[in-house]
Amino acid sequence: MAASDIAGRVEEMARPLAERKGLELVEVQYVTEGGRRYLRVFLDKPGGINLDDCEAVSRELDRALDDVDFIPHSYVLEVSSPGLERPLKRAEDYVRFKGRLVQINTYAPLNGRKKFSGRLMGSGEEGVTILLGEHELATIPWDQISKARLAVEF
Questions:
Q1: Range of the domain at 74
Q2: What is the chain's pLDDT, residue by residue, as a tens digit (154 residues)?
Q3: Are residues 74 and 97 both part of a single domain?
Q4: Residue 58 confidence (pLDDT)
Q5: Are residues 99 and 56 in the same domain?
Q6: Given phi > 0 = left and psi -120 to 50 = alpha, else beta, which region is 34?
Q7: What is d(CA 76, CA 39) in angstroms, rounded to the nearest whole number?
Q8: What pTM did the predictor assign?
Q9: What are the φ and ψ backbone dihedral angles of 114, each rounded to 5 degrees?
Q10: Are residues 59 and 118 in the same domain?
Q11: Are residues 74 and 96 in the same domain?
Q12: How far is CA 89 from the centre of its chain?
């Protein structure tokens, strides 16, 4: 079973579990690092999550995963916050974080570049609009966004 398939199945299991606890499932990753496999589940909620939130989801998800036992290898389950540089995955994320500093990478160059950093000004059918510098707006089409995340403001 491919890593993306495993992550997808775990996401289907974890999303309702997180929502019952008032949490948002941000992302699920199944990766191999240094010869070990990790199943990473990232959660959030307004105001941020705490250790008790992570522990509760980890405990329930671990039991559920043991019951269905579809992951063919041993792995380490990690449940945590997405951190300050949280990924932006869904259209709702762009609405929620309007006004924040973001970093967006594209699949192909747009106006000669593939990396954009700026203030998230909005989103719509055509894509995401960010303010680059003081006066330059850039609209990045949805289908060109390969990776987007919040950026830390100092």
A1: 3-80
A2: 888 899 999 999 999 999 999 999 999 999 999 999 999 999 999 889 999 999 999 999 999 999 999 999 999 999 999 999 999 999 999 999 999 999 999 999 998 999 999 999 999 999 999 999 889 999 999 999 999 999 998 8
A3: no
A4: 97
A5: no
A6: left
A7: 6
A8: 0.84
A9: -115, -5
A10: no
A11: no
A12: 5
Distances from the Cα of 51 to the Cα of 19, 44, 56, 65, 148, angstroms = 17, 12, 9, 21, 26
CATH of the domain at 104: 2.30.30.180
CA distances 4 to 35, 68, 71, 94, Å, are: 18, 18, 12, 24
Q: Identify whether residues 38 and 65 lie together within a single domain.
A: yes
Pairing of strands 76-80, 36-44: parallel
Note the pLDDT tens digit of each residue in 115-153. 999 999 999 999 999 999 889 999 999 999 999 999 998
**Contact by Cβ (8 Å): 115, 130:** no
Same domain, 68 and 101: no
Report how many domains make up the chain: 2
Which pLDDT does position 54 carry in this prediction? Answer: 96
Judged on CB neighbours under 10 Å (0-12, 13-18, 19+), 109 is: exposed
